[in-house]
Each structure stands twice: as C-alpha cells, then as structure tokens.
Amino acid sequence: MLNNVMIVLPIVFPFVLAAIIAITKFEKDKERNLFVGTGVIFNFILTVYVFHSVKYGEIHLLKFNNFLDIYLKIDKLGVLFSLLVSILWIFTAFYSMEYMKHEGGENRFFAFFTFTLGITLGIGFSGNLITLYVFYEFLTLATFPLVIHSGTKQALQSGKKYLIYSFGGATLVLLGMLLLFSITNNLNFVPRGILSGIYQDNIKLCLGIYIAMFIGFGVKAALVPFHSWLPAAMVAPTPVSSLLHAVAVVKSGVFALIRMNFFVFGADAVKATKGNVYMSILVGITILLGSLLALNQQNLKKRLAYSTISQLGYIMLGIILLNEEALVGGLLHLINHAVIKITLFFCVGTIMYTTHKTEISQIKGIGKKMPVTMWCFAIASVSLIGIPPTNGFVSKWYLALGGLAEGKALFVAILLLSALLTALYLLPIVAVAFFKKEEGEEVVKIEEAPMKMLVPIVSITVITVLLGLFPNPVLEFIQEIVADLL
Fold it and tell me: How does the protein associate with the membrane (predicted)?
C-alpha cells in the first residue's frame, strides 16, 4: 500500500512547485528559471522512478461509491502518455524561460505552467472514467489563464470561446457517463472494455452514449465541427500554443478517446453499435478540412493550428478503425505529431521573438539569417508530410495498413490527399525562407535565436529524426499495448 501511495507524487509535486512559484518573489529571473527547470526535470525522474518501482500499481484516493471513486492506476498506455508529457514539458520549460521575457508576467505563467503539468499527468494516471473527467475539467481551468495571458480583448474573447467549447464537450461526457453507469455500475478502465455482454440488450442506448462521449472528448481533440476554439487560442504565447497543440490539451482529448473506445466500450461493443461508422464521417472531414483551411492561412501560427486539426484526425482514424495496425498507427502518431508539432511551433515562436514577423510573406530570406531555426523547421515539415524515412511516414504507414485491413480504401485515399495538402501548406514556408530574397524595407539585421531557445528546438528535432530512423523501441512498446486491447 505504501508503495502505491508513490503514484500520487508525480501529480502532487508540480502542484507544490506551482504554489511556491506563485507565492515567492524571486529577486532574479535566473533564480526562478533554475527553480522551474530543476523542478520539471526532477518530476520527470520521479515519474520514471514511480513507473520502475511501483510497476502497475493502483490506489483509491477517495471512494464514496462506485461512481464517485477517485482512482489512480498505472498501465502501459498511461506510461506512454505520461513519459511523453514529462519529456516535452522539460523542453517547453527551458524554451519559455527566454521566450516569456517579451511577454511579461513570467511568474504567473510558470505557476500555471507547472500546475498544468500535474493535472496532465493526473489524466495519464487515471484508473477510471470519473477520475479522468475530474482532471480533464481541471485542465480546462488551468490552461485558461495561459490562453488569456496577454490580457487583450482578443485573448479574453478567445479564452471565453475555449471555456464554452470545453465545458460544452464536458457536459456531453458527463451525460454519457451517467447513462453508462446506469447500465454497468462500473466506470473502471479495463482492457477490452466493461460492456461485455451488456451492450447486446442496449444497442441503441450504447450508441447514444458512444456518440455523446466521442463528441464530448472530441471537442478537445478539435473534431470538426467543434474545432474553432483551437485556432482562436493562437493569441496565447507560443509556449502555450505548443502545450495546447502538441502536449497537454489536444493530446489529452485523443488519449481520453482511446480510453473510452478500448478501456470502457471495447472494440466489440463499438462494432456492435456501429458508433465508429458514424464518427468516421466526422473524422474524415476533420482530416481533409483541417488541411484545406491550413492552406488559406497566411499567419504562421494559424497555419500550424489548422494543421493540428488535420493531424489529430489521423489519430482519431487510428482509433475508430478498430484493428491492430490502425491503433498502432494512431498511438505512434500521438507521439510523432507531438514532437513534430512542438518543433514547428518553437521555430515559429523563435521567428516571432527575434523578428516580430508573424506572416509567411514577411519571412523572405530568413533561412540564411536563421539557418538553425529554419533547418529544424524544414526537417519537422518533411516529417509531418510523412516522407520516408521520417517518423511521420512510420505512423501513416500503419494507419494506411489499418485502413486496407478493414477494406476502407477511401481512408487510405484521404490519408494520401492530406499528405499532399500538408506538403502544399508547409513547403512554401520553407521555400519563402530559403529561396526568396528580402525586398526594400524588409531588409533588416536579423540574427539567430538565443541558445536557450535553440537548444530545445535542436534537441526535439534530433528526437524527431531518431524516431524515424529507429522506431522499433517505441513501436514494440505500442504493439504490447495494442495486443492487450484487440
């Protein structure tokens, strides 16, 4: 029992960090930065230690009845998600130390930043649906101050939109949970689901619950037509955009969908209700519409935001195809998209920080003055397109195999078309930066970004390349997860 109590530590420790940052008046930025950097690194080490020592333990923190049961549990899917979060949080922390200098309010930012880490890990460690739901709601509240950090009218409007969409989706999830509990008396996460045998007498009710919960969790995963909060949230500082789009919010959305499909319903129940067939329409539209909307954006961050909508559709496709290859591809893309997209946002943030330029037309010739930043952007772009031997290719290959295994050639065609569109909205940015010359008044002195920003960018780019060249360690672990679910 004492050993299992350790499961709580990686969640609680960031809360303690956040409280200390909030109440302490640091005399120098260096002191605060050292505290934050040391804190997130220590939390990563603590997370790894807990996984190693507790293995697959569990603990009930508060249990009033079978419904209201705050229950933490470590399993392989939780390990995968939590390690991804912990690692990318470290890079974002060090990147933010430099970037937030020109945004101001650093203490407030880092307090909510570390607080959000604990909540996101809570989502990863959740042992049942109600625990995940509680952390999921707190995630909205914790990230809201980060979205409205600048305090402008536009930021406040975007924050309001974020809350409305998030709480609207959460209401659907809560409705689904209540109905689900009424027929199962159980909300625990169990591989292959808790509906075994029950769904056969409640097909229509189970279908309604499935659609309500898929859309509810799909809001945070930017499922079309519930996606517009995501581009609006681009008013936030770039490190927040990175968190929203690569690590915390949207990945928590798809993580919750994986839990719902394979640990609550189970593939057999989903197939019986045909809920995945109905949702496949929205997922297909999400993949294509996200790419098409990205093509029309001239603002760098907004182009990446719409790109995220499309790429999240890939992961949701891996979920709803309900076969091993597709789910392997979906989980791989959850990892690969995270490292690629955080690299792209960091690069765009660096351009904005050093040049104050936000539009694609404004970055002519910038590749020669900021070669490290733009080369990292180019490598990440090629990876997102899915050109061999990049990590994006590996995950899309498995998604295509999953589509063919189900006889859904249409989905394979959608993947190929989306890859083409991805090339059309990312490669022109690289071309403008490297091959177009500055003109007239645009010719200004531009230097490469500070090392505090370059080191995280280069480091994650290296990880991106390694995940493409040596995918097997991650791939084998994901295949172990999938083997238990299908």
Answer: Multi-pass membrane protein
- What count of other Cβ atoms lies within 10 Å of the Cβ of residue 201? 9
Q: What is the pLDDT of residue 478?
A: 95
Q: Show the tokens assigned to 368.
A: 């020669």
Q: Which residue has the tokens 């177009």?
A: 436
| Gap between the Cα atoms of 351 and 383, Å rounded | 20
Q: Provide the Cα torsion 307, 311, 313, 314; round to 10°.
A: 150
| pLDDT at 1 > cutoff 90 | no
Exposure of 388 in the CB half-sphere (CA atoms within 13 A)? 1
- pLDDT-based confidence at residue 440 (cuts at 50, 70, 90): low
Q: 159-180: per-residue pLDDT in tens? A: 899 999 999 999 999 999 999 9
Give 198: exposed, middle or buried? Use CB within 10 Å, 0-12, 13-18, 19+.
middle
Query: For residue 336, what is the enclosing H or E element?
Result: helix 324-355
Q: What is the pLDDT of residue 199?
A: 74
CA atoms within 13 A on the CB side of 463: 20
- Give the integer Cα–Cα distance in Å for 370 and 354: 10
Where in the chain are the domains?
335-486
Tokens of 139: 């995630």
